[in-house]
Design brief:
heterodimer, A: 110 residues, mainly beta, 0% helix, globular, B: 114 residues, 6-stranded mixed sheet, 4-stranded antiparallel sheet
């Protein structure tokens, strides 16, 4: 099974409320990534886990948190959603080879 | 700073016609280059990848791309498009073999005329 699963496919959130997005893979990949994609913009790397080590991009350091309780799961956490967080969130995994992407979770913040 | 530019937001070609999607990159050092495709309602999938070596790389479904250091380009080509190629195509660059840290272009939406 070479798939990356993301739940849910669509998520509605209120401004100021927390948001937690879930990603899983069963390929035993050592690295998992979260990208953000807004309409008409390029996908942008937010953070990634190499094994148990979290690496966050400098410009999104304080906006997103993540956890990886085991090799298969990785979450993306927004403590207080703002309108600017509305986007497609893409999870991916890799093991020295190419990236495998999930379908994405479309987050709408109202 | 590293960047990727896909100058054409939308491209429309007739079925059976040839295709070229353009990609320009700005990068110091040796780039690792990729094309990803996103079919409707699906996640991004790798189409092909370039590592230093032969400048022309072959991908899936008849796609190929050519790396040009002098032009800082990595254009995607296909000799004859099929309606199933209707998708969004993303060019990306990575700074090292750990290709998960990708810098993407904005994507080119390909439409096929019957």
């Amino acid at each position: 099974d070479t798939t990356v699963k993301q739940n849910p496919r669509y998520k509605l959130a209120r401004v100021g409320k927390p948001v937690n997005l879930i990603c899983s893979q069963t390929m035993n990949h050592d690295t998992m990534y979260w990208y953000q994609k807004k309409p008409n913009q390029a996908p942008k790397l937010l953070l990634f886990y190499y094994d148990k080590i979290l690496n966050r991009e400098a410009d999104t350091f304080e906006k997103f948190q993540s956890s990886r309780p085991n090799n298969s799961f990785c979450s993306l956490y927004i403590g207080s959603a703002g309108l600017e967080y509305s986007a497609m969130y893409l999870c991916a995994s890799s093991r020295g080879g190419w990236l495998f992407f999930g379908h994405g979770t479309k987050l709408s913040v109202l | 700073a590293q960047s990727v530019t896909q100058p054409d937001a939308r491209v429309t070609v007739s079925e059976g016609a040839s295709l070229q999607l353009r990609c320009k990159y700005s990068y110091f050092g040796t780039p690792y280059l990729f094309w990803y495709v996103q079919y409707p309602r699906q996640g991004l999938q790798l189409l092909l990848k370039y590592y230093p070596g032969d400048p022309v790389v072959q991908g899936v479904n008849g796609f190929e791309a050519e790396f040009s250091k002098s032009n800082s380009s990595f254009h995607l080509r296909k000799a004859s498009v099929h309606w199933s190629d209707w998708a969004v195509y993303f060019c990306a660059v990575s700074m090292n073999y750990n290709q998960g840290k990708l810098i993407f272009g904005q994507g080119t939406k390909l439409s096929i005329k019957p």
